[in-house]
Every structure is written in C-alpha cells, then in structure tokens.
Write a structure and sequence with these properties.
The chain is an alpha/beta fold. The chain has 17 helices and 8 strands. Strands 3-8-7-6-4-5 form a 6-stranded mixed β-sheet, with helices on both faces. A two-stranded antiparallel ribbon has the order 1-2. Helix 9 packs antiparallel against helix 17 (about 345-355).
Length: about 375
C-alpha cells in the first residue's frame, strides 16, 4: 500500500476482483463510495482507505450480496453498528437469496419433469413440449391448463418402472473429464438425494479414489461416526474385501445429528477413541461435524493418519468449517461444500467405491 493518491486505473489494479472503472463510477452514483478528490486535471484521486472500502464491496458482492444490502452494511461505521442490526440485515439478505433459489428450484423441477422422462415417455414428452409452446399461463385459467398438462404427463409413469440411468443422462452436466469411477460415484450420490445440483458441490482430492481403493483392497478398517451410518454401509461387500467395520460413537441410542454432536462433546472417551483408530483406516462422517473437526485436529497433531476421510456431516456453521479444514488437511478426502451432506450420502460414497472393487456377493456372511 502507498499513501500516494491513486488514479482510477491504479485503484482497480490495487483492489482486483474484476473491478472496472465503470463499476467504480457506478458505486459513486449509488453512494457506495464517497465523492473522490480531484486533481488539477479533474481526474479522480483515491486513497488507501478507498482501496480498503472497495475491497469490502467486492468481497461482499462476490459472496452474493446485492448492492442495496451492501450499502446498508457499510452505511454506518463498523464500530457503531450493533450485532443485532447487522444480524437483521444478514437475515434479510439470506431470506431474499432463499426466495430466489426457491423460484429457481421450481423452474428446475419443471425442466426435470420434462428432461428426466425416459424413452418410454418420449412421445408424450414431445407432445407436452408442443403444448407448452402454445400454453398461456399468465391467468388462473392458464395455470389450470398447466396442471392438466402435468396430469397427462404423469399418467405415462404408471406403465413402466423408471429408468434412472437414462433419466440422469438427460440431466447431468458434462462429466467427460471425470474418471469412470468418479462419474459412477456422483450418479449414486444424486440418486440418493434426488438433487442433480449436488454434482457441483461434491469435492474429491486428486488422489482420493486411488487411496481408498488401495486401502479397501488391503482390508483396512472402516469407521462410521454413528450407528445409522454404520447401518447404511455395504456390509456384504466390505466383509468379502476383508474390511472390519466399526462405529466411533458406539451408542445404539444415537439416532439424530443433535444427539451425535452432544454425545461426542460430553464424553471424552469418543475423542480418545478417535485418536486410537488404526493407521490407514477410512473414516466415514455423516452426522457430527465435531467428529470431523476433531479428526482434522488429530491429523494436524500427528495422532491420526487415515487413508481417506469421507466428510459429509450436517450442520449450518460447524459443518462447513470442518469441511474446509478437511480440504486443507493434506489427507485424501471426499466431501460436500457448505451445509449439504448427511449419513446416507457419506455411506453411499463409501459403498460406490467398494462396489468398484467387487461384484455384490449373494450372501449374508457378515452376519456370522
């Protein structure tokens, strides 16, 4: 940084983030930026404070905040803004974003209802698209016509079982740059939750698939964070692969995320057990974010060295933080960004990789 006044060209270079002179002038017009001092040649001149101010605007905009909300957030000095008023503004922004996502979700659902039709429904699908071109839905009567159209489409679904793979081919983004095993994994995760957008938030480290396949082939220990995740694992395949499957929080009464989180915090034995897990194990976390956070801490302290962590706990603050820490840990991982996740998805991820190694045996040997 420098105390020398900056021209608008040097200002956008210092701020970065895709800022342009036109955007800076627009921010002046909106009052997001105070009027700049002028040179003798009438050029705008900016200070280090302007650079800091613009960086905050750019950062908030990149996080999805609308300019009107950014203006409110920056309207008063940070030293005088109360936590309550800031929280209210953030809640308003969140609700606005969620309403927008809800409208997008409705549009996506309508498109899925058409694109997801398999070959058996193709003729009806084409007929429906033709009707949609002619349909006026701006009135209540129009909406009634649209409902009748969907009823006609839905009638075709009773004549045959759904072809899931065929439907997915119509809906999934281009995955040609992914390996066959990764594509299969992503498809199984989508089918487990019915949300195609999950593809965009699943993250695998570069060596994740090779690491877990090598570990499973070597008969590694599989550790689920809670009993519900344990129960969702493919016990038959894992038994034939020589993998011992255990539960970290070994309490059969744990049935919810809240219970799992509090149990892990209240009883030191589970944290100690985590640090005693076998080297080269595979840890599957689908419930408690604190388990994933404690695992990352143990890795950083050299007390845990798993072959892979599947980290998909549920939570609205701790879970996203734990997942970010996992991605920085240096340990091979499979995770999902933000709050998305759950025990079923975590188990499905492990099962898909086990399935890539062995056909499903027609037995129940793991019960012995």
């Amino acid at each position: 940084m420098t105390s020398k006044p900056l021209t608008i060209k040097n200002l956008i270079k210092a701020v970065g983030g895709g800022l342009t002179p036109r955007m800076v002038r627009h921010y002046h017009t909106l009052g997001l930026l105070p009027p700049a001092k002028r040179s003798h040649g009438n050029y705008r001149l900016y200070t280090d404070l302007d650079v800091q101010h613009l960086r905050r605007i750019v950062a908030l905009k990149q996080q999805g905040f609308q300019l009107s909300h950014i203006q409110k957030l920056l309207a008063t000095d940070s030293m005088t803004t109360t936590n309550d008023s800031l929280m209210t503004q953030l809640q308003q922004q969140y609700r606005s974003v969620m309403q927008y996502l809800g409208r997008l979700r409705q549009t996506a659902s309508a498109l899925e209802g058409l694109l997801g039709r398999d070959r058996e429904c193709l003729n009806i699908q084409l007929e429906a698209i033709d009707q949609l071109r002619q349909l006026e839905v701006e009135t209540i009567a129009g909406f009634g016509q649209l409902e009748k159209l969907w009823d006609g489409l839905d009638a075709a679904t009773h004549s045959h079982p759904e072809e899931f793979q065929e439907s997915l081919e119509h809906l999934l983004p281009d995955l040609s740059d992914r390996s066959e095993i990764e594509v299969d994994l992503l498809k199984k995760l989508v089918l487990a939750c019915g949300d195609v957008s999950l593809v965009d938030v699943v993250r695998l480290s570069e060596n994740a698939i090779a690491a877990v396949r090598d570990a499973i082939k070597a008969g590694c220990q599989i550790v689920a964070d809670v009993k519900p995740v344990f129960a969702s694992l493919d016990q038959t395949r894992l038994a034939h692969l020589g993998c011992e499957v255990v539960t970290l929080i070994d309490d059969p009464h744990i049935t919810s995320v809240t219970e799992a989180e509090h149990e892990f915090w209240q009883h030191r034995q589970w944290r100690e057990r985590l640090q005693q897990l076998n080297s080269n194990c595979v840890l599957v976390v689908g419930y408690a974010p604190s388990v994933l956070m404690a695992a990352c801490e143990a890795i950083e302290n050299g007390k845990l060295q798993p072959a892979l962590i599947i980290g998909m706990p549920i939570g609205f603050s701790h879970a996203p933080s734990a997942k970010r820490r996992l991605m920085r840990s240096g340990i091979p991982f499979i995770t999902s960004l933000g709050t998305l996740g759950g025990g079923l998805l975590a188990a499905i991820a492990l099962n898909a990789l086990a399935e890539s190694l062995i056909e499903k045996p027609n037995c129940h040997c793991y019960l012995r």
